[in-house]
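Friendly challenge for the regulars: who can give me the structure tokens for this chain first? No prize, just bragging rights.
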Amino acid sequence: MSIATPSDLPFMKMHGLGNDFVVLDARARAIAVTPALALALGDRHRGLGFDQLALITDEGPGDAHLTFYNSDGSTSAACGNATRCIARFLMDERGRDALTLTTDRGSLRAEDAGQGLTRVNMGAPQLDWADIPLAEEMDTLELPIEGGPTATGMGNPHCTFFVPDADAVALEAFGPRYEHHPLYPQRTNVQVASVIGPDHLRMRVWERGVGATLASGSSSCATAVAAARRGLTGRAVRIDLDGGTLMIDWRDDGVWMTGPTMHVASGTLTADWLAQI
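First reply, four minutes later:
Bragging rights claimed.
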């Protein structure tokens, strides 16, 4: 079906620590998301603007299925902060304190963590080179790249650099250089992180297909896993991002992420705007 229908299309705007999303709910109305629609919606001047677009459907065995798109129109199997935001919306909608969401990453458990916080189990990290994926077989703990970053998969690929001062890194130049590194055939999210203490990290993020973001849930999970693997921290850490703080806990059953969510607004995309897509 064409997305440019005569009637208006509802949307929601949400964010987790400034990592912002447009959410389309296709449970009651079929919605065809195309790369062109995602690209147009992601335009912060002529569309709505977002880091990721999320589509909610009734597909799969869970309470709902989520599909994610980046602001350049490409897809992503995982988006931790959007998953938390939508989980909070659905729990409030249904009067529940836990549910299961399915994504291309797999089945994810979400829970009310109290005090306005929501936690999601983002699943086990992918540590083997082929699963992340990398272009060739190698040790993922320290890649043969200047700075010796760690590679981690969280349903999407990550490249984490541990540096003395994350705030001193010129992220707008640093991020694109490694997003397109030939070792990452699907591109990669890039993190720069500094160790503040045994359970405390400062991190900044360059997301593939998006650019610099105020926060990233999957990047936070990947960085926590990388820090623990390298013996820099324990497995439960606080991560301070540009947009706020997430708590990450790498447990035997997966990587749990806890933090705040915000449903900013609900509205409609007009027929005139949709007709130009």
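Residues 80-94 form the longest helix (15 residues). The helical segments are 35-42, 80-94, 171-179, 217-229, 271-275. Your move, everyone else.
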